[in-house]
Design a protein that fits this description.
- By secondary structure, the chain is α/β, with parallel strands linked by helices.
- The protein is 31% helix and 15% strand.
- The strands form three sheets. A six-stranded parallel beta sheet has the order 7-6-5-8-9-10, with helices on both faces. Strands 1-2 form a two-stranded parallel ribbon.
- It is globular.
- The relative contact order is 0.12.
């Protein structure tokens, strides 16, 4: 999502360097609007102890301290990322991302580097008005049943229950036997495979880079996912997306990239939903908002001519 702010600045004539975690580097390094892709090893930064974290911070600052940037933008709201720019931490050159409830994060990232009106105009330009780009889709459905976690946290609250995904695959296998179902995700999502027994699917979990994952989604007829990284990647495609939401606010994380795309939530009235305040979730032990989003509701959103 933050890449949109870089693209906006490039279109305004700025030269943009972009610091990114090693997992996401392939998504950034070949973008024509990025001058220099600076790769950060987030494992060293957050997992391997204080010494390696300090070494990574020093390495990054060596890369940026001599460049005399006009402005530095921190695209992550977590306070720990401020350590990446320690030499200029108190400088007026720094602007930070602070998500606003009810506003899409893409629009907020662009507002961070522009004005409110410019950001709103840019975001509106992204929303697809027709389905012309969807004429060459392959008859297959891509799903991302894992995810909803990153280097800092594991947000199980956001996941649609794995048993629901399995049931959905069973329904699709039965009604549309000629439709391929592809499961995607990172290596760390391999745990989901133990649940998909006695159903027909193609496993691509852990097999693709982020760019490769986007290509798989791009060539498919539908993409189905809860609020996770792959769902955000899908917004760079025109593939009809069925987005499953509960504790997070859909309009902050998703926009209609295709006229067939839709957001689905539970039909049950829950006063606590959405509960995510951009930092934390309310205490919850049942994840009822995702549990009660029915398989039938998701399945009925799939149509093949």
């Amino acid at each position: 999502m933050c890449l949109h702010s870089a693209k906006f600045l490039h279109e305004k004539g700025y030269c943009v360097d972009f610091a990114v975690g090693s997992v996401s580097k392939d998504l950034v390094k070949n973008k024509p609007y990025i001058n220099d892709c600076i790769v950060i090893d987030e494992d060293k930064l957050f997992k391997n102890g204080k010494i390696e974290a300090l070494q990574e911070i020093i390495k990054l600052n060596k890369n940026i301290s001599y460049k005399n940037y006009d402005l530095v933008f921190l695209g992550h709201s977590d306070w720990r990322y401020k350590f990446l720019v320690l030499p200029i931490i108190f400088s007026s050159k720094i602007r930070s991302f602070h998500p606003v409830r009810g506003i899409n994060h893409i629009e907020e990232y662009v507002r961070m580097v522009s004005t409110k009106d410019e950001a709103k105009k840019y975001f509106k330009s992204l929303i697809t008005k027709d389905d012309d780009m969807n004429l060459q889709k392959v008859k297959r459905i891509v799903m991302a049943p894992g995810g909803a976690k990153n280097i800092l946290r594991n947000d199980a609250q956001r996941r649609w229950p794995i048993q629901h995904y399995v049931k959905l695959v069973q329904f699709i296998n039965k009604k549309y036997p000629d439709v391929d179902i592809i499961l995607i995700g990172a290596h760390s999502d391999s745990w989901v495979l133990d649940y998909f027994v006695d159903v027909k699917f193609i496993n691509q979990i852990g097999e693709n880079t982020i760019s490769g994952t986007q290509e798989v989604i791009k060539k498919s007829h539908y993409f189905i996912s809860h609020d996770s990284g792959p769902l955000h990647f899908s917004l760079n495609t025109n593939t009809p997306t069925i987005a499953l939401f509960g504790p997070t606010e859909a309009k902050e994380k998703f926009f209609k990239n295709n006229i067939k795309s839709r957001v689905l939530i539970t039909d049950k009235k829950l006063d606590c939903m959405p509960c995510y305040d951009s930092k934390n979730y309310k205490k919850c032990f049942s994840y009822e908002c995702m549990e009660t989003l029915s398989v039938n509701k998701v399945f009925s959103s799939i149509e093949f001519n």
